[in-house]
Structures are given as C-alpha cells and as structure tokens.
Amino acid sequence: MLFIIVVSGAILFMALVGMIKWQNDDIKKQWIEDSSQVLNACFTLNALLLAPGRTLTLHRTIQLARARGWRTGPSEGWTADAIKRARVLEADNKPWLHLVPTRPSGAVIPDYEITPWRKWVAITLYNNANGWFQIPMAVAMYVWINDFNNRPPYIVGASLPLSFICGAIAGIWPSLIWKKVKKIRKERKAAAGGEDAGGPIPSDGIPLTEGSASKTLSVGGASTGAEDTNTVDTQTPVKTPTPIDTHEELEGGSRGPIFQEGGERGRTRGSLKEEKWTRSLTRKVLFGGEKEEEE
Predict the structure, then answer these.
(1) Where is the composition biased (Basic and acidic residues) (predicted)?
(2) How many whole angstroms separate alpha carbon 85 and alpha carbon 262?
(3) N or C terminus of the chain with fewer C-beta within 10 Å?
(4) pTM given for the model
(5) pLDDT tens per residue, range 61-76
(6) Which pLDDT score is estimated for 202?
(7) Residues 135 and 258 in one domain
(8) Secondary structure of the chain: what % helix, strand, coil (to 5)?
C-alpha cells in the first residue's frame, strides 16, 4: 500500500505543478482525478482497518470515566473497577500511558510519569477524528466519481487537511510525552549521583562520592599525584615456586621433584636421570654454582 501511495502521490504532485506536459487539459484533469481516487481509496481502507480499535479505545475511555465518577484528578475516583479498566488501556498503550497513580505491584508512580486525564481524552478523540474526517471526503470522491468537475471543492478541501492534522497530533503527542518522561528520569538519575552524573569512576567500578577519602597512586615508591581509591605498590617481590626435596610416587612409578606455591602443587614426570638433572639445574640457579650430588 505504501508503494501505491508514493507512486500516486508523485503523479498527482507532478501533474499539479506542471512537471508533466499534457496534450490538453482534459487528459491532465483525468490523471489528477485517477491519482486522487487511488489515494482516497488507500486512506479510506486505512481508516476502516483502524476504526474498530480506535472506537473500542474510545468506548473503554468512556467506561473508565463513568467508573471514576467523571473525576479528572490524578488520584481521584480510583475504585477497583476503575483500576481494572485503566490497566487494560495502559497495556494497549505501553510504555507511555500511566493513568493509575500506582503500579500493579503497589509501588507509587512519580507524578511526572502519570499521564493527565485530559491529555489522554484529547489523544483518543484526535485518533478517532482522523477517521471521522475521512468519511465526508470518501463520500464526496465516490458520489461525484463520474462528474468530478461538479464536485464541491470545499468538502475535500476541508476534510483532507483536518484528517491529516488530527492523525499527526494523535501520533506525535504520545511520543513527546514519553520523551519528556525519559528526560526527567535521566536528570533525576544524574542528580542522584548515578552513572550519568559524569563523575570519576575508579577502575574497581565503585563511583566516588562526596566526602570519600582519596589516596595517592604510587608506582615504584614514587607519587604520581593522581587520586584513586587504591594504592599500588610494585616493590613487593614476586613469589616464585620453591623446590621441595620430598619425593612422592607418581603414576606409572616415575618420581620427580615437587614444586609448591601457596598450596598449589605441580609434579614433573621422568626417569631418575631426568630427576637428577632437574635438581642439579635448580641448585645452579638458586646458589650460583653446581654441586655434585652424592649417590
């Protein structure tokens, strides 16, 4: 349908502004009429498809107003029946619509998230008016389809822009309401010192707060002047594995030196000759010289 609307609209526009050259005015008027009829058929079909849902929403809004006793205050008239009816409307218009001042869990909704009753009623009426104004335009187009030169121009001239304006307002207004809610949420989150506040975030992921003590970052005993919540010292020697002379029987009967570091134990496999060579190399590294091992 969108492709048909675009093509017919382009033909109508080029015909009206004179971008297409015609042999005579009668052919031009016939092309304009045909393109207008195609566009009107698309808009009428769209209005007919949306009419049941919009009418049902209007009916539910009227029923909700009756259940609230025609009260319009954000915290007035919320009986159990009214809350039940409002939840249905909120579910159909997520996430921007909040009529009941509390969530289903019982939590209180902030005032800036509650949709004013008058705004909701206005949006509902604009949605329905978008289809209502399509009716006189469609009637005028089809009644004078064979005598379009005598069609009253004021019917289409008034119905078409009013229908477009109502549809635009009903479509844009909820987006503006939801955008405002998200903006206020972000501002309050930033004011509360959240991640959007732009404050320094240390490497451990814990945000700095006012009054927290700052420490100097030291690397190799020298101060860098930068503030951080942790002190780094690189002068502490790294613990290396130390050999243990104790031997234990390994799988398959092989024996080897045991290396231990903080409870972690690793064993090398090999024959007795490989074991002696390993121990000799270890003594050479640790004591600077190789000692002969007594048999």
Answers:
(1) 262-275
(2) 66
(3) C
(4) 0.62
(5) 999 999 999 988 888 8
(6) 42
(7) no
(8) 55, 10, 35
Summarised one tens digit per residue, pLDDT across range 163-194 is 999 999 999 999 999 999 999 999 999 988 75
Please choose, from the candidates 28, 52, 279, 281, the residue with its C-alpha nearest in 3D space to the C-alpha of residue 149: 28
Q: What is the rounded distance in angstroms from the CA atom of residue 178 to the CA atom of residue 291?
A: 82
pLDDT at 227: 43
Domain range holding 167? 46-191
Given the structure tokens 């289809």, which residue do they identify?
131
Q: Is the dihedral of CA 18, 19, 25, 28 positive or negative?
A: negative
- Residue 96 is assigned to a structural domain of this protein: yes
Q: What is the count of structural domains for the chain?
A: 2
Residue where a domain stops, chosen among 155, 176, 191: 191
Residue 12, in any domain of the structure: no
Same domain, yes or no: 50 and 168? yes
With beta carbons less than 8 A apart as the criterion, state whether 234 and 219 touch: yes
Last residue of a domain, which of 154, 170, 191?
Answer: 191
Whole-angstrom distance, CA of residue 49 vs CA of residue 1: 13
Q: Give the burial class of 136: count Cβ atoms within 10 A of its Cβ; 0-12 exposed, 13-18 middle, 19 or more buried.
A: middle
Other Cβ atoms closer than 10 A to 124: 19
Q: Is residue 253 one of the residues assigned to a domain?
A: yes
